[in-house]
Write the structure tokens for this entry.
Amino acid sequence: MDYPPEVVQTSSLTRAQVIAELQAAKAAGQVTFGDIDEPATQTASSTVTRAQVHAEAVEANQSPNGSVAFDGRGYPNTGA
């Protein structure tokens, strides 16, 4: 008695080919994840350099209102 029955699988692709196809599908946003059948969200690449972000942060901290809050209003400058 052979239980469970042996499953014979045949493939014309090598392991490397399957991995390459999977990576290409992930890069194209075609691979779904989780319980929903939606592709992963694509993140936009930044066009600002690290130095530019740092300069903007320094400028924001030197503004009369101190650091800038998320809603655009400044935090009070406590001198800390």
In short: The chain is about 30% helix and 0% strand.
